[in-house]
Amino acid sequence: MIRWSVSALFFVNGMLIGSWAPRIPVLMDRLDITEARAGLIVLALGLGSLCVMPVFGAMVARAGSARAVRLAAWLAAPSMIWISVAPTYWSVAAAVALFGGLAGGMDVAMNANAVAVERARGRAIMSSCHGFWSLGAFAGAGAGGWVIQQFGEVFHGVAVAAVFALVLLWAQGRLVQDAPAPDAPRAPLRLPRSPLPWLLGVIALTAMIPEGAILDWAAVYLQREMGASIALAGWGFAACAATMAVMRFLGDGLRRQFGAVTTLRASTGVAMAGLALAGLSATPGPAIAGFALAGIGIANMVPIAFSAAGNVPGLAAGMGLSVVTMMGYSGILLAPGSIGFLAERIGLGVIYTGLAALLLIPLALSHLARTADFDPQGG
Protein backbone atom coordinates (compact mmCIF):
# COMPACT_ATOMS: atom_id res chain seq x y z
CA MET A 1 0.00 0.00 0.00
CA ILE A 2 2.87 2.40 0.71
CA ARG A 3 3.99 1.81 -2.88
CA TRP A 4 0.66 3.08 -4.23
CA SER A 5 0.34 5.96 -1.78
CA VAL A 6 3.63 7.56 -2.83
CA SER A 7 2.73 6.91 -6.48
CA ALA A 8 -0.55 8.78 -5.90
CA LEU A 9 1.44 11.79 -4.66
CA PHE A 10 3.55 11.77 -7.81
CA PHE A 11 0.37 11.60 -9.88
CA VAL A 12 -1.34 14.62 -8.28
CA ASN A 13 1.87 16.67 -8.30
CA GLY A 14 2.21 15.95 -12.01
CA MET A 15 -1.47 16.80 -12.53
CA LEU A 16 -0.94 20.15 -10.83
CA ILE A 17 2.13 20.99 -12.92
CA GLY A 18 0.43 19.76 -16.10
CA SER A 19 -2.60 21.93 -15.35
CA TRP A 20 -0.29 24.95 -15.44
CA ALA A 21 0.80 24.31 -19.07
CA PRO A 22 -2.41 25.39 -20.91
CA ARG A 23 -2.85 28.38 -18.60
CA ILE A 24 0.09 30.38 -19.91
CA PRO A 25 -1.48 31.47 -23.23
CA VAL A 26 -4.74 32.13 -21.35
CA LEU A 27 -2.92 34.38 -18.88
CA MET A 28 -1.17 36.16 -21.74
CA ASP A 29 -4.56 36.96 -23.29
CA ARG A 30 -6.20 37.93 -19.98
CA LEU A 31 -3.34 40.21 -18.92
CA ASP A 32 -2.58 41.33 -22.50
CA ILE A 33 1.15 40.66 -22.17
CA THR A 34 3.96 39.61 -24.51
CA GLU A 35 6.14 36.49 -24.35
CA ALA A 36 8.83 38.48 -22.53
CA ARG A 37 6.48 39.51 -19.71
CA ALA A 38 5.05 36.00 -19.58
CA GLY A 39 8.64 34.81 -19.24
CA LEU A 40 8.92 36.81 -16.01
CA ILE A 41 5.88 34.99 -14.63
CA VAL A 42 7.45 31.65 -15.55
CA LEU A 43 10.67 32.83 -13.92
CA ALA A 44 8.70 33.64 -10.74
CA LEU A 45 7.55 30.02 -10.65
CA GLY A 46 11.16 28.83 -10.78
CA LEU A 47 12.45 31.30 -8.21
CA GLY A 48 9.64 30.43 -5.81
CA SER A 49 10.42 26.76 -6.12
CA LEU A 50 14.16 27.10 -5.64
CA CYS A 51 13.64 29.31 -2.57
CA VAL A 52 11.24 26.88 -0.88
CA MET A 53 12.75 23.52 -1.89
CA PRO A 54 15.69 23.78 0.57
CA VAL A 55 13.23 24.52 3.40
CA PHE A 56 11.36 21.29 2.77
CA GLY A 57 14.65 19.45 2.21
CA ALA A 58 15.70 20.44 5.73
CA MET A 59 12.28 19.43 7.04
CA VAL A 60 12.69 16.00 5.45
CA ALA A 61 16.09 15.59 7.12
CA ARG A 62 14.81 16.66 10.54
CA ALA A 63 11.19 15.40 10.65
CA GLY A 64 10.89 12.84 7.86
CA SER A 65 9.43 13.00 4.37
CA ALA A 66 5.87 11.94 5.27
CA ARG A 67 5.27 15.02 7.42
CA ALA A 68 6.93 17.35 4.92
CA VAL A 69 5.00 16.05 1.92
CA ARG A 70 1.65 16.33 3.70
CA LEU A 71 2.29 19.96 4.61
CA ALA A 72 3.48 20.95 1.14
CA ALA A 73 0.69 19.08 -0.63
CA TRP A 74 -2.18 20.59 1.36
CA LEU A 75 -0.78 24.08 0.87
CA ALA A 76 -0.26 23.49 -2.86
CA ALA A 77 -3.73 22.03 -3.55
CA PRO A 78 -5.56 25.35 -4.22
CA SER A 79 -2.74 26.89 -6.28
CA MET A 80 -4.71 27.06 -9.55
CA ILE A 81 -7.50 28.92 -7.76
CA TRP A 82 -5.12 31.63 -6.54
CA ILE A 83 -3.75 32.09 -10.05
CA SER A 84 -7.28 32.23 -11.50
CA VAL A 85 -8.53 35.00 -9.23
CA ALA A 86 -5.37 37.15 -9.13
CA PRO A 87 -6.47 40.37 -10.89
CA THR A 88 -3.19 42.03 -11.91
CA TYR A 89 0.11 41.10 -13.52
CA TRP A 90 2.10 41.31 -10.29
CA SER A 91 -0.51 39.49 -8.21
CA VAL A 92 -0.47 36.68 -10.80
CA ALA A 93 3.34 36.59 -10.58
CA ALA A 94 3.15 36.35 -6.77
CA ALA A 95 0.54 33.57 -6.95
CA VAL A 96 2.67 31.68 -9.47
CA ALA A 97 5.78 32.07 -7.26
CA LEU A 98 3.87 30.60 -4.31
CA PHE A 99 2.57 27.80 -6.51
CA GLY A 100 6.11 27.01 -7.67
CA GLY A 101 7.46 27.03 -4.13
CA LEU A 102 4.87 24.66 -2.72
CA ALA A 103 4.86 22.32 -5.72
CA GLY A 104 8.66 22.21 -5.57
CA GLY A 105 8.66 21.56 -1.83
CA MET A 106 6.22 18.71 -2.35
CA ASP A 107 8.47 17.35 -5.10
CA VAL A 108 11.52 17.17 -2.83
CA ALA A 109 9.55 15.48 -0.05
CA MET A 110 7.80 12.92 -2.26
CA ASN A 111 11.09 11.90 -3.94
CA ALA A 112 12.56 11.40 -0.47
CA ASN A 113 9.53 9.31 0.49
CA ALA A 114 10.02 7.21 -2.66
CA VAL A 115 13.62 6.56 -1.56
CA ALA A 116 12.30 5.49 1.86
CA VAL A 117 9.85 3.10 0.15
CA GLU A 118 12.70 1.64 -1.92
CA ARG A 119 14.62 0.95 1.27
CA ALA A 120 11.58 -0.55 3.00
CA ARG A 121 10.69 -2.80 0.05
CA GLY A 122 14.22 -3.60 -1.09
CA ARG A 123 13.54 -2.77 -4.74
CA ALA A 124 13.79 0.23 -7.05
CA ILE A 125 10.59 2.16 -7.83
CA MET A 126 11.91 5.60 -8.82
CA SER A 127 11.33 5.36 -12.58
CA SER A 128 7.76 4.15 -12.18
CA CYS A 129 7.04 6.85 -9.59
CA HIS A 130 8.15 9.40 -12.16
CA GLY A 131 5.90 7.53 -14.60
CA PHE A 132 2.93 8.30 -12.37
CA TRP A 133 4.07 11.95 -12.33
CA SER A 134 4.06 12.00 -16.13
CA LEU A 135 0.65 10.29 -16.19
CA GLY A 136 -0.70 13.02 -13.92
CA ALA A 137 0.94 15.72 -16.03
CA PHE A 138 -0.65 14.20 -19.14
CA ALA A 139 -4.07 14.26 -17.48
CA GLY A 140 -3.62 17.82 -16.23
CA ALA A 141 -2.36 19.22 -19.54
CA GLY A 142 -4.62 17.20 -21.82
CA ALA A 143 -7.86 17.94 -19.95
CA GLY A 144 -6.85 21.39 -18.73
CA GLY A 145 -7.07 23.20 -22.05
CA TRP A 146 -10.52 21.73 -22.80
CA VAL A 147 -11.88 22.52 -19.31
CA ILE A 148 -10.60 26.11 -19.46
CA GLN A 149 -12.06 26.60 -22.92
CA GLN A 150 -15.46 25.19 -21.90
CA PHE A 151 -15.88 26.42 -18.32
CA GLY A 152 -13.23 29.08 -17.65
CA GLU A 153 -10.17 29.50 -15.43
CA VAL A 154 -11.88 29.55 -12.05
CA PHE A 155 -13.86 26.35 -12.63
CA HIS A 156 -10.65 24.68 -13.79
CA GLY A 157 -8.83 25.78 -10.64
CA VAL A 158 -11.58 24.45 -8.37
CA ALA A 159 -11.72 21.14 -10.26
CA VAL A 160 -7.95 20.63 -9.97
CA ALA A 161 -8.04 21.43 -6.23
CA ALA A 162 -10.93 18.99 -5.64
CA VAL A 163 -9.24 16.07 -7.41
CA PHE A 164 -5.96 16.86 -5.64
CA ALA A 165 -7.62 16.93 -2.22
CA LEU A 166 -9.50 13.65 -2.73
CA VAL A 167 -6.34 11.77 -3.71
CA LEU A 168 -4.38 13.33 -0.88
CA LEU A 169 -7.03 12.33 1.69
CA TRP A 170 -6.63 8.72 0.59
CA ALA A 171 -2.82 8.69 0.36
CA GLN A 172 -1.62 10.70 3.34
CA GLY A 173 -2.34 8.07 6.02
CA ARG A 174 -0.66 5.30 4.03
CA LEU A 175 2.76 6.87 3.49
CA VAL A 176 5.85 5.16 4.84
CA GLN A 177 6.88 6.85 8.08
CA ASP A 178 10.57 7.72 7.96
CA ALA A 179 10.97 10.30 10.74
CA PRO A 180 14.28 9.84 12.58
CA ALA A 181 14.16 8.60 16.15
CA PRO A 182 14.22 11.38 18.77
CA ASP A 183 17.61 10.22 20.07
CA ALA A 184 19.14 9.65 16.61
CA PRO A 185 22.24 11.74 15.82
CA ARG A 186 21.57 14.54 13.37
CA ALA A 187 23.68 14.48 10.22
CA PRO A 188 25.17 17.83 9.25
CA LEU A 189 23.32 19.55 6.41
CA ARG A 190 26.26 20.25 4.08
CA LEU A 191 26.83 19.84 0.37
CA PRO A 192 29.09 17.07 -0.98
CA ARG A 193 32.67 17.88 -1.94
CA SER A 194 32.98 15.15 -4.56
CA PRO A 195 32.52 16.43 -8.14
CA LEU A 196 30.50 13.37 -9.23
CA PRO A 197 27.12 14.44 -7.76
CA TRP A 198 27.53 17.88 -9.34
CA LEU A 199 28.27 16.37 -12.75
CA LEU A 200 25.24 14.10 -12.39
CA GLY A 201 23.35 17.28 -11.56
CA VAL A 202 24.48 18.70 -14.91
CA ILE A 203 22.91 15.66 -16.62
CA ALA A 204 19.64 16.28 -14.77
CA LEU A 205 19.84 20.01 -15.49
CA THR A 206 20.30 19.63 -19.24
CA ALA A 207 17.61 16.93 -19.39
CA MET A 208 15.04 19.04 -17.56
CA ILE A 209 15.58 22.29 -19.48
CA PRO A 210 13.84 20.81 -22.58
CA GLU A 211 11.11 19.34 -20.38
CA GLY A 212 10.49 22.76 -18.86
CA ALA A 213 10.55 24.38 -22.30
CA ILE A 214 7.83 21.99 -23.48
CA LEU A 215 5.79 22.40 -20.28
CA ASP A 216 5.76 26.19 -20.35
CA TRP A 217 6.00 27.08 -24.04
CA ALA A 218 4.62 24.23 -26.19
CA ALA A 219 1.06 25.58 -25.90
CA VAL A 220 2.23 29.10 -26.80
CA TYR A 221 4.25 27.72 -29.73
CA LEU A 222 1.30 25.76 -31.09
CA GLN A 223 -1.26 28.52 -30.58
CA ARG A 224 0.64 31.68 -31.48
CA GLU A 225 3.10 30.43 -34.10
CA MET A 226 0.96 27.69 -35.70
CA GLY A 227 -2.61 28.89 -35.11
CA ALA A 228 -3.79 25.94 -32.99
CA SER A 229 -6.79 26.30 -30.67
CA ILE A 230 -6.31 26.37 -26.89
CA ALA A 231 -7.72 22.85 -26.63
CA LEU A 232 -5.27 21.53 -29.25
CA ALA A 233 -2.37 23.59 -27.89
CA GLY A 234 -2.64 21.84 -24.52
CA TRP A 235 -1.73 18.59 -26.27
CA GLY A 236 1.83 19.76 -26.93
CA PHE A 237 2.93 19.02 -23.40
CA ALA A 238 0.25 16.33 -22.96
CA ALA A 239 1.79 14.28 -25.78
CA CYS A 240 5.22 14.62 -24.21
CA ALA A 241 3.89 13.67 -20.76
CA ALA A 242 2.02 10.64 -22.13
CA THR A 243 5.07 9.11 -23.81
CA MET A 244 7.19 9.96 -20.78
CA ALA A 245 4.74 8.07 -18.57
CA VAL A 246 4.88 4.94 -20.73
CA MET A 247 8.66 4.94 -20.95
CA ARG A 248 9.09 5.58 -17.23
CA PHE A 249 6.97 2.56 -16.40
CA LEU A 250 9.30 0.57 -18.66
CA GLY A 251 12.43 2.33 -17.41
CA ASP A 252 13.48 0.06 -14.54
CA GLY A 253 13.29 -3.01 -16.81
CA LEU A 254 15.21 -1.32 -19.61
CA ARG A 255 17.93 -0.28 -17.21
CA ARG A 256 18.25 -3.82 -15.84
CA GLN A 257 18.50 -5.26 -19.35
CA PHE A 258 20.80 -2.75 -21.05
CA GLY A 259 22.48 -0.91 -18.18
CA ALA A 260 22.12 2.70 -17.11
CA VAL A 261 24.81 4.13 -19.41
CA THR A 262 23.45 2.54 -22.60
CA THR A 263 19.87 3.45 -21.67
CA LEU A 264 20.89 7.04 -21.01
CA ARG A 265 22.73 7.34 -24.34
CA ALA A 266 19.84 5.91 -26.35
CA SER A 267 17.35 8.11 -24.48
CA THR A 268 19.40 11.23 -25.21
CA GLY A 269 19.54 10.46 -28.93
CA VAL A 270 15.77 9.98 -29.16
CA ALA A 271 15.14 13.20 -27.23
CA MET A 272 17.39 15.13 -29.61
CA ALA A 273 15.47 13.80 -32.63
CA GLY A 274 12.11 14.72 -31.10
CA LEU A 275 13.12 18.27 -30.21
CA ALA A 276 14.54 18.80 -33.69
CA LEU A 277 11.29 17.56 -35.28
CA ALA A 278 9.19 19.87 -33.09
CA GLY A 279 11.39 22.85 -33.84
CA LEU A 280 11.47 22.32 -37.61
CA SER A 281 7.75 21.59 -38.03
CA ALA A 282 5.45 24.04 -39.81
CA THR A 283 2.09 22.69 -38.57
CA PRO A 284 0.74 21.51 -35.19
CA GLY A 285 0.52 17.78 -36.02
CA PRO A 286 4.23 17.09 -36.66
CA ALA A 287 5.20 19.43 -33.81
CA ILE A 288 3.04 17.48 -31.35
CA ALA A 289 4.57 14.26 -32.71
CA GLY A 290 8.01 15.76 -32.07
CA PHE A 291 7.08 16.59 -28.49
CA ALA A 292 5.84 13.01 -28.04
CA LEU A 293 9.14 11.63 -29.38
CA ALA A 294 11.08 13.99 -27.11
CA GLY A 295 9.10 12.63 -24.16
CA ILE A 296 10.21 9.08 -25.01
CA GLY A 297 13.82 10.19 -24.80
CA ILE A 298 13.62 12.54 -21.82
CA ALA A 299 11.62 10.04 -19.76
CA ASN A 300 14.41 8.08 -18.10
CA MET A 301 17.25 10.57 -18.21
CA VAL A 302 16.32 12.19 -14.89
CA PRO A 303 15.43 8.97 -12.98
CA ILE A 304 18.79 7.50 -14.03
CA ALA A 305 20.58 10.63 -12.79
CA PHE A 306 18.63 10.44 -9.50
CA SER A 307 19.48 6.76 -9.00
CA ALA A 308 23.13 7.36 -9.85
CA ALA A 309 23.34 10.23 -7.36
CA GLY A 310 21.67 8.17 -4.65
CA ASN A 311 24.30 5.43 -5.05
CA VAL A 312 27.55 7.40 -5.26
CA PRO A 313 30.12 5.38 -3.25
CA GLY A 314 31.05 6.96 0.07
CA LEU A 315 28.25 9.53 -0.04
CA ALA A 316 24.94 9.45 1.81
CA ALA A 317 22.09 8.95 -0.65
CA GLY A 318 20.20 12.00 0.56
CA MET A 319 23.13 14.33 -0.02
CA GLY A 320 23.72 13.29 -3.61
CA LEU A 321 20.01 13.30 -4.34
CA SER A 322 19.60 16.80 -2.94
CA VAL A 323 22.27 18.19 -5.29
CA VAL A 324 20.82 16.53 -8.38
CA THR A 325 17.26 17.52 -7.46
CA MET A 326 18.14 21.18 -6.98
CA MET A 327 20.22 21.37 -10.16
CA GLY A 328 17.69 19.45 -12.21
CA TYR A 329 14.70 21.47 -11.11
CA SER A 330 16.55 24.70 -11.69
CA GLY A 331 16.53 23.62 -15.34
CA ILE A 332 12.82 22.92 -15.54
CA LEU A 333 11.87 25.98 -13.49
CA LEU A 334 14.37 28.75 -14.25
CA ALA A 335 15.51 28.24 -17.83
CA PRO A 336 12.01 28.48 -19.40
CA GLY A 337 11.70 32.01 -17.98
CA SER A 338 14.53 33.21 -20.22
CA ILE A 339 13.00 31.43 -23.20
CA GLY A 340 10.21 34.03 -23.26
CA PHE A 341 12.73 36.79 -23.95
CA LEU A 342 14.44 34.77 -26.69
CA ALA A 343 11.12 33.74 -28.24
CA GLU A 344 10.25 37.33 -29.16
CA ARG A 345 13.48 37.64 -31.12
CA ILE A 346 14.15 34.28 -32.72
CA GLY A 347 10.93 32.24 -32.33
CA LEU A 348 10.22 29.08 -30.35
CA GLY A 349 10.96 26.78 -33.29
CA VAL A 350 14.61 27.85 -33.31
CA ILE A 351 14.75 27.43 -29.53
CA TYR A 352 13.49 23.83 -29.62
CA THR A 353 16.03 23.01 -32.33
CA GLY A 354 18.77 24.56 -30.18
CA LEU A 355 17.70 22.49 -27.18
CA ALA A 356 18.35 19.36 -29.25
CA ALA A 357 21.99 20.48 -29.51
CA LEU A 358 22.09 21.14 -25.74
CA LEU A 359 21.60 17.43 -25.12
CA LEU A 360 25.08 16.76 -26.44
CA ILE A 361 26.19 17.60 -22.88
CA PRO A 362 24.43 14.68 -21.09
CA LEU A 363 25.47 12.46 -23.99
CA ALA A 364 29.11 13.33 -23.28
CA LEU A 365 28.67 12.78 -19.51
CA SER A 366 26.61 9.58 -19.81
CA HIS A 367 29.45 7.32 -18.62
CA LEU A 368 29.08 8.84 -15.14
CA ALA A 369 25.65 7.22 -14.76
CA ARG A 370 27.18 3.78 -14.15
CA THR A 371 26.54 4.12 -10.40
CA ALA A 372 22.81 3.79 -11.20
CA ASP A 373 23.43 0.08 -11.91
CA PHE A 374 22.97 -1.41 -8.48
CA ASP A 375 21.21 -4.39 -6.93
CA PRO A 376 18.49 -3.02 -4.65
CA GLN A 377 18.15 -6.38 -2.92
CA GLY A 378 21.80 -6.34 -2.05
CA GLY A 379 22.07 -2.68 -1.21
Descriptive overview:
The protein is an all-alpha fold and 379 residues long. It is 80% helix and 0% strand. It contains 18 helices and no strands. Helix 1 packs across helix 7 and helix 11 runs parallel beside helix 13. The protein starts with a helix and ends in a 14-residue tail after the last helix.
Mean of pLDDT: 86
Q: Helices and strands, in N-to-C order?
A: HHHHHHHHHHHHHHHHHH
Q: What characteristic shape results from the CA principal axes?
A: globular
The SS-based structural class is mainly alpha
Extract low-pLDDT stretches: none
SS elements, strand count: 0
Major β-sheet profile = none
The proportion of residues in beta strands is under 5%
What helical percentage do the residues reach? over 70%
Q: Please state the CA-atom Rg, rounded to the nearest Å.
A: 19 Å
- Count of helices? 18
Termini separation comes to: 22 Å
For the structure shown, list the relevant keywords.
379 residues
List the helices and strands and how they pair.
Blueprint: H1 2-20, H2 23-31, H3 35-63, H4 65-76, H5 79-85, H6 89-121, H7 126-151, H8 153-171, H9 195-225, H10 230-233, H11 235-258, H12 260-280, H13 284-298, H14 301-310, H15 317-333, H16 335-346, H17 348-358, H18 360-365
Helix pairs in contact: 1-6, 1-7, 1-8, 3-4, 3-6, 3-15, 3-16, 4-6, 5-6, 5-8, 6-15, 7-8, 7-11, 9-11, 9-13, 9-14, 9-15, 9-16, 9-17, 11-12, 11-13, 12-13, 12-17, 14-15, 16-17
Give a brief rundown of this model:
This protein is mostly helical. It is built from 18 helices and no strands. The radius of gyration is 19 Å and the shape is globular.
